[in-house]
Design a protein that fits this description.
Elements: H1 6-30, H2 44-51, H3 60-64, H4 72-86, H5 98-111, H6 113-121, H7 128-132, H8 135-138, H9 159-162, E1 163-164, E2 173-174, E3 222-225, E4 230-233, E5 243-244, E6 247-248, H10 257-261, H11 303-307, H12 339-342
Antiparallel strand pairs: 1-2, 3-4, 5-6
Helix pairs in contact: 5-6
């Protein structure tokens, strides 16, 4: 029997040692909840953010994957990062890539099942194919890079790298067909996992905090800035000063809607109803987007009942009035409907409630 050459034997041992070193190293790094990972300078800022975040009681591997995962992309990604360090080509700052988003969303679903189900059933789970191959839209408005500001924040490239042609004639197609069924507004578009805050505790039956001190939104609420690939905290996002003609519109103080305005935004003149703006005026002026729209699913079925009784001041069932709440074909948009729209000859006086015997 012919003996293998010493060089071949040495190579085989080196390969086996390398293969064993990868899971061994992973187990070592996972054993101390990310502290070892933070020894690399580009990981330290993210690690420090996580340690003070609402997710600090969740181990890194719960979201980013661990040694025993069967996801080969995870292991190949670790190998690529290892090679970059060997070549002294490590990035100064960690950026989430489009491929990472899909994997992280699956981990979001593991803990936030109800929120994920609501998002998945709502309009914000719309896909690349539904947005960028929409014939009705594309024949009226030319596709441009600004579309990616809201629909495709994590896409790595410009509009011409995503779809062709970009004219008004079509037919249009995605350059990467694998994007067709992927969401354009994933969880991470509006939520930053590494955001400073306290972990969520189980609610008590009788909160000891008075109403004004109770939490309205979680610290994770933030907008991803596509240009810098960083999240802007919701508290730092502005609520625009909207106008109806020259009149300054009364705005709700609900800071959560500042996030809504980043995509459902007005044109430069800040006039109500122009661009993608939906600022309420008329009978609904001054209320928040979240007063009517469910935060993840965006359903509005219970919106009328949440704020006022079944009967209006006119004695009519508010849900049966001629508005876009009843029918999307109505000429009375629920965001801007006024009493005068249905009472052009003058608003009748309020009916007195019927006295019970």
């Amino acid at each position: 029997m012919k003996r293998p050459k010493r060089s071949t034997l040495f190579l085989g041992v080196a390969v086996v040692a390398a293969l064993l070193a990868i899971p061994g190293g992973s187990f070592f790094y996972e054993s101390n909840a990310g502290e070892s990972c933070a020894r690399c300078h580009e990981i330290r800022p993210t690690f420090d953010l996580w340690r003070a975040s609402t997710h600090r009681e969740t181990n890194c591997k719960a979201c980013h994957g661990g040694t025993l995962t069967l996801d080969m992309d995870f292991h190949l990604g670790n190998i690529r990062r290892l090679v970059k360090h060997w070549k002294d080509d490590a990035p100064e700052q960690i950026r989430i890539k489009s491929a990472d988003v899909d994997r992280l969303m699956k981990q979001c679903r593991e803990c936030h099942r109800q929120e994920f189900a609501n998002w998945e059933a709502g309009p914000h789970s719309i896909t690349y194919a539904e947005i960028f191959l929409n014939k009705d839209h594309n024949t009226k408005r030319r596709l441009m890079d600004d579309c990616l500001r809201c629909h495709g924040m994590f896409f790595e490239g410009g509009i011409r790298d995503l779809v062709e042609p970009t004219d008004l004639k079509g037919p249009w197609r995605l350059k990467d067909p694998s994007l067709a069924n992927k969401p354009t507004i994933p969880c991470l578009a509006c939520h930053a996992m590494h955001r400073e805050g306290m972990p969520l505790k189980k609610a008590r039956q009788k909160p000891d905090n008075p109403g004004p001190r109770q939490e309205i939104f979680r610290p994770s609420l933030a907008l991803l800035d596509r240009r810098q690939m960083e999240h802007m905290p919701n508290a730092r996002l502005p609520i625009p000063a909207m106008r109806e003609g020259e009149r300054l519109v009364k705005m709700s103080p609900d800071q959560r809607q500042a996030l809504c305005y980043q995509c459902h935004s007005p044109l430069a003149g800040f006039q109500v109803g122009y661009g993608d703006d939906r600022t309420p005026i008329g009978v609904h002026e001054g209320i928040s987007c979240l007063a009517c729209h469910d935060k993840h699913r965006q359903t509005t079925r219970a919106s009328c009942a949440n704020c006022h009784p079944r009967l209006s001041n006119c004695g009519l069932d508010v849900e049966k009035m001629d508005t876009t709440f009843l029918s999307t074909k109505s000429k009375h948009n629920i965001h801007w409907v006024k009493c005068i729209d249905c009472h052009p000859k003058g608003v009748p006086p309020r009916k007195k409630p019927v006295q019970a015997d």
